[in-house]
């Protein structure tokens, strides 16, 4: 066993396959904000709670620190390009992307495998991230389309080897 340097810890965590999400909210001026995240978990069924975490270095942090609502979109294998787009910093993530307002105005993206419309219930700063807990107000899911996965620092649209 070794001490967990940031590089070693990232490599070890990368061995755990996760789903891929896009989390969206509205800025104070009404502009849509969204980013790709794979730090999504269920917390409780009663009450219905989910969580995700955001790096304190994220440019979206000010929006999510004050947003009353957010939406979490679980992506399908066919949405890898969208996940890559919302992970980049050097593009207009919303150019040409259709969306509709959901609970509290949070942008809803079409064709996600599942969507969780949440009221932000609590925020916990921990280490270099903030953990956001959302109370699920509405949720929906589609068919059994394969999920987009993230493993070993890469997206996967089929079985993870």
TrEMBL record:
Question: What GO annotations for molecular function exist for this entry?
Answer: flavin reductase (NADH) activity; FMN binding; riboflavin reductase (NADPH) activity
Keywords recorded for this protein, A-Z: Oxidoreductase
Concerning InterPro entries, the annotation shows:
Flavin_Rdtase-like_dom, NADH-dep_flavin_reductase, Split_barrel_FMN-bd
The first-level EC class reads oxidoreductase
Name all Flavin reductase like domain ranges: 13-157
Alphabetized SMART domains for the sequence: Flavin_Reduct (SM00903)
Asked whether the keyword Oxidoreductase is assigned, the reply is yes
Q: What is this protein called?
A: p-hydroxyphenylacetate 3-hydroxylase, reductase component
């Amino acid at each position: 066993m070794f001490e967990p340097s940031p590089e070693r810890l990232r490599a070890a965590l990368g061995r755990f396959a996760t789903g891929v999400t896009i989390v969206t909210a509205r800025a104070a001026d009404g502009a849509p904000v969204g980013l790709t995240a794979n730090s999504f978990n269920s917390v409780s069924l009663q009450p219905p709670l989910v969580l995700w975490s955001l790096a304190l270095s994220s440019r979206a942090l000010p929006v999510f620190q004050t947003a009353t609502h957010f939406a979490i979109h679980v992506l399908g294998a066919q949405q890898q390009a969208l996940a890559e787009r919302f992970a980049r910093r050097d593009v207009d993530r919303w150019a040409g992307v259709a969306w509709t307002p959901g609970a509290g105005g949070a942008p809803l993206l079409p064709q996600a495998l599942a969507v969780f419309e949440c009221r932000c219930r609590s925020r916990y700063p921990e280490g270099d991230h903030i953990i956001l807990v959302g109370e699920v107000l509405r949720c929906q899911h589609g068919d059994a389309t394969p999920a987009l996965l993230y493993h070993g620092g890469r997206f996967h649209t089929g079985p993870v080897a």
